[in-house]
Design a protein that fits this description.
about 20% strand, alpha+beta, seven-stranded antiparallel sheet
Length: about 500
């Protein structure tokens, strides 16, 4: 089962990345632990204001005190059109409900640090994604996540929680979760997508769709920001990281991120000189310390080919374990089939000895009929056993292939270790490709065998000759007994009348 899943995930990874967009991490628009804040409590490339507190592990945008407001803004505007932001945060408090909430911003100008909308400005030009935890309109629709687009002229509708101004949203509970909640905001080709992680599991990829809106036009360049506020009720609003990735269409990032040829040649030359200097120092050290040559540091590391061969060997070992597990399950199925066949044979013999008619030449053998009226014939059981035998033979062939693959991998690893002293006459890349193809064939065969096992066995239909069921057979016996009983009573009555006549 695990081998089939690995194969499916591998094929999905290849297909999904065939024409994928280019991604580049933007460190000037990101922060993450450890050492998130410096000794003076400042965050590199960010401005922290209001009641926000920065530490080495997180930024507490608003503490769990009444009427607290804080914000964090990037110092520089973006220089890319499309982006993806990953936020990990935790909103926690002792109250049954919280207030007011957390906000993510993408605006042309930095907002206030003590504003009316979740600690930021009431009017903004760009995107505001609000994690609202207080129900102002008393409609029992909080905690709520919503996206609001503003051109800088509209004022946020506090009384109705901005529901009439929202572009889209979703009802999700993000307070007091065992793990940090996360949100992934993507803006690409004028499509805004928000994925949400509920924080109920420790799996970082356990996202679900919150909202998706098309034809969304945001300002070309802007600032990223986070803000939070508390009111009469209070929660701690902690943000653990904000990771920004710029998105580029295929072919556009090459020209932007390309290093000039002159600088590239200079860096390559410096690297070669450093490598030669390092090798010279290593040789001098070996000459000065001949007794320590056995403890070469290079033995502690593995090359790219060794790592790739080790990964292939691990995958092959896992496949062999799956094959052994499948073989064990097949043996259990065969044992159950044999026990079922013996029970059917015993039941058939009991029916025959109980007065059932013996089959004549060309007729079907007697069958066992259960309480539901469905009959199981010997021919059907034979078909099931033949199918299981075919599967067992297939599993044996797969075991043979896996063992062969294991021996070849071990031979390659041995030759790789000895290649340094013997000169290495092997085509490593060709052998690795061949091993990959063999491993993929084994995984495909395992997936086919699993599909056959999971498919229900098709029972052959009853032949044209009518099958005698247990219920009709019992009814016929009862009718015959009633007839015999009536005949005996009639005969006794006649005998009594004859005795009275004499």
């Amino acid at each position: 089962m695990n081998g089939g899943k690995l194969l499916i995930l591998f094929l999905y990874f290849i297909s999904s990345n065939a024409n994928s967009i280019h991604r580049r991490f933007e460190y000037k628009y990101s922060f993450k632990p450890p050492y998130l804040a410096q000794k003076d409590s400042t965050v590199p490339f960010f401005e922290v204001g209001g009641n926000a507190i920065a530490s080495s592990e997180s930024i507490r945008v608003a503490p769990s005190l009444r009427s607290q407001k804080g914000a964090v803004w990037t110092k520089a505007k973006t220089n890319f059109d499309w982006w993806e932001v990953d936020i990990a945060f935790r909103i926690s408090g002792r109250g049954r409900i919280g207030a007011d909430g957390l906000a993510f911003w993408y605006t042309t100008e930095k907002g206030d640090y003590n504003g009316e909308v979740f600690g930021s400005s009431d009017r903004w030009n760009g995107l505001g994604l609000f994690f609202d935890s207080f129900d102002n309109d008393n409609k029992h629709n909080n905690p709520y996540i919503m996206a609001v687009i503003n051109d800088g002229n509209r004022k946020f509708d506090h009384q109705n929680d901005g529901i009439n101004q929202a572009l889209a949203g979703c009802l999700r509970d993000f307070r007091n979760k065992p793990f940090p909640t996360r949100a992934k905001i993507e803006y690409y080709n004028n499509v805004l997508t928000v994925l949400f992680h509920s924080g109920m599991t420790n799996n970082e990829q356990d996202y679900e769709m919150c909202l998706r809106a098309e034809n969304v036009v945001l300002p070309k360049f802007g600032h990223f920001g986070l803000s939070a506020a508390t009111g009469g009720l209070a929660d701690d609003h902690d943000v653990f990281h904000l990771l920004t990735t710029s998105l580029w269409a295929p072919g556009t990032l090459d020209a932007i991120g390309q290093v000039p040829q002159q600088d590239n040649d200079k860096i390559s030359q410096e690297y070669q000189e450093y490598q030669q200097k390092l090798d010279k120092q290593k040789e001098e050290y070996k000459k000065e310390h001949p007794e320590e040559q056995k403890d070469d540091m290079e033995d502690w590391f593995e090359s790219d080919n060794q790592r790739e061969l080790r990964q292939i060997w691990q995958a092959q070992t896992q496949t062999a374990e799956i094959l052994r597990e499948l073989s064990r399950k097949l043996d259990e199925v065969l044992g159950r089939q044999e026990r079922t066949l013996s029970l059917i044979s015993v039941s058939g013999n009991q029916i025959q000895t109980g007065g059932a008619q013996q089959p004549q030449g060309g007729q079907q053998p007697p069958v066992y009929t259960g309480s539901t009226g469905d009959s199981i014939r010997r021919q059907e059981v034979d078909n099931i056993i033949n199918t299981q035998n075919i599967l067992v033979q297939s599993m044996r062939d797969l075991k043979t292939q896996a063992n062969d693959l294991n021996q070849r991998v071990e031979m390659l690893i041995t030759n790789q270790k000895q290649g340094g002293s013997q000169g290495g006459g092997y085509d490593i890349q060709g052998l690795i490709t061949e091993m990959r193809d063999g491993l993929n064939q084994v995984k495909l065969s395992v997936h086919g065998v699993q599909t056959k096992i999971n498919q229900p066995q098709q029972l052959t239909s009853c032949p044209d000759a009518k099958c005698l069921g247990m219920t009709p057979f019992l009814i016929a016996i009862v009718v015959h007994l009633l007839i015999l009983l009536g005949y005996n009573m009639y005969k006794d009555a006649k005998g009594n009348q004859s005795k009275k006549f004499y």
